[in-house]
Amino acid sequence: MPVQDLLQFIDRSPTPFHAVAETVARLEAQGYRRLDEAEAWEVDRGDKVYVVRGGGSLAAFHMGTAPAPEAGFHLVGAHTDSPNLRVKPNPELKKAGYGQLGIEPYGGVLLHTWLDRDLSLAGRVSLADGGARLVDFRRELLRVPSLAIHLNRKVNAEGLKLNAQTHMAPILTLNELGEINLRALLAGELGDVKTEDVIGWDLMAYDVQPATRSGPSREFIHAARIDNLASCHAGLSALLATVGEAEMSRGIVLYDHEEVGSRSAQGAASDFLRSCLQRLAGDSSESFHRAVAKSFLISADMSHAVHPNYADVHEPMRQPVLG
After folding, report:
1. Comparing C-alpha atoms, which of 53, 63, 65 is closest to residue 31?
2. What is the pLDDT of residues 70-103, one digit of tens each?
3. What is the DSSP string of 27-60?
4. How remote is the C-alpha of 194 from its chain's centroid?
5. Domain residues for 132?
6. 93: exposed, middle or buried (C-beta count within 10 Å: 0-12, 13-18, 19+)?
7. Which of 155, 187, 212 is the last residue of a domain?
């Protein structure tokens, strides 16, 4: 079922790196071939190819039967990242008998939604040999406990006020059980890596509760990272469903770092898509510009449906409703 496949895609994509890895697995299962930006490209009409930049961004194309300058590109764009809590460098903290990890908010995080949840860690680990490995603990590892109402009697009347630096550091362990060593923890999870070979990371906390459906008719989807993995999944599914021949070239571009402004080497403000299209359209600037003039791109992102308990914050005559 398409809905169940979406939920599975979300569960397998706790980070942009994992979202790209899951997308690559699905593309390669359908015969797509990887291109390297640092190598020469040989792409013919009808070929199915993809490119990864920075580990968290991907572009894939099913080339048409007509030259790109004659038929253009039909594209869907989306983003792989979502607001979350990311682990700082040198994150180990010791406070009041607990071992904690220092975190920083990434993107527009609604901090209170991260309280009292079973959190795990996933991301990319940089190694001393210049390589990198994906890691996903896939189990309850961290928790950011809220303060008991007995110690904050006015919270319901005055609202919960959170400081990301002082209130959001997740608890990892008890100090009496030993020193926290994140490098050793990562090396142990990877299994075949020495602690001293772990030189860096891009790690993100995520809620281990799987994506699910609810309601009398199972009409609702509840999941983290719907913005914007749902659009990534829709674009990918549409591309993989285009099995027949067509004159135009079809494709998707999935960007990282949208939640923080897109201004990175692999963000939407980079030259990633332009570079791909220039190389696929032909050798000349004229070919590229002709192809672009015949192309279109759907920028697929999510929007907020009207909240029945806060309907007054929406435009009265233009309320997006579900169903």
Report:
1. 63
2. 999 999 999 999 999 999 999 999 999 999 999 9
3. HHHTT-EEE-TTS-----TT-EEEEEETTTEEEE
4. 28
5. 84-212
6. middle
7. 212
Q: Which of 212, 238, 269 is the last residue of a domain?
A: 212
Q: Is the pLDDT of residue 1 over 80?
A: no
Taking residue 95's Cβ as centre, other Cβ atoms within 10 Å add up to 11
CATH number (domain holding residue 247) = 3.40.630.10
Whether 186 is covered by a domain: the verdict is: yes
pTM, 2 dp:
0.96
Question: What is the rounded distance in angstroms from the CA atom of residue 202 to the CA atom of residue 242?
Answer: 35
* Overall number of domains in the chain: 2
Q: Which residues of 114-133 are buried (b: 16+ CB within 10 A; e: fewer)?
A: beebebbbbbbbebeeeebb
Task: For residue 199, report the phi and psi dihedrals to the nearest 5 degrees.
Answer: -110, -10
Q: Provide the 3-class DSSP secondary structure of residue 267.
A: coil
Assess contact for 259 and 36: CB atoms under 8 A: no
Token pair 């006015």: residue: 154
The per-residue DSSP string of 194-218 comes to: -GGGEEEEEEEEEE-SPPEEESTTS
Structure tokens at 239: 């591309």
